[in-house]
């Protein structure tokens, strides 16, 4: 009988521990909102342990793969190219010319 009570007590403790561990916020994700010269606005999300960038652009979600270049890092996919810079970023989408953007 005592071992049954002990097992139930441990099960309740593990359930509470699992609940609190699952409800903790994700660590170190980064979201930036950008405004571009041509009026485009978009949001970029980066997650730890994931090399992709997640864009919300013109109401569409676009996942961009990381590409390494000699001049730095760029992300591209589905007709969108995003290049983060120290001063902001540049983006090219929908066959438009490259546009400079700043973090808002």
Structure description:
With 104 residues, this protein is an alpha+beta fold. It has a single domain, classed as Lipocalin, CATH 2.40.128. Helix content is 20%, strand content 49%. It has one helix at 2-22; strands spanning 30-36, 41-46, 53-57, 60-69, 72-77, 80-85, 88-93, 99-103. An eight-stranded antiparallel beta barrel has the order 1-2-3-4-5-6-7-8. A hairpin with a 5-residue loop joins strand 7 and strand 8 (99-103). It is globular and about 35 Å long. Mean pLDDT is 82; it is low at 7-24.
What's the short version?
With 104 residues, the chain is of the alpha+beta class. It has one helix at 2-22, and strands at residues 30-36, 41-46, 53-57, 60-69, 72-77, 80-85, 88-93, 99-103.
Structural class: alpha+beta
Number of strands: 8
Bulk shape: globular
Number of domains: 1
Q: Helicity level, as a percent range?
A: 10-25%
Could you please say which CATH topology applies here?
Answer: Lipocalin
Strand and helix order: HEEEEEEEE
> Which value, in Å, is the CA radius of gyration?
22 Å
From the 3D coordinates, which CATH architecture would you assign?
Answer: Beta Barrel
Task: Profile the largest sheet.
Answer: 8 strands, antiparallel, barrel
**Tally of DSSP helical segments:** 1
CATH top level assignment: Mainly Beta
Cα-to-Cα separation, first versus last residue = 63 Å
The strands making up the biggest β-sheet line up spatially as: 1-2-3-4-5-6-7-8
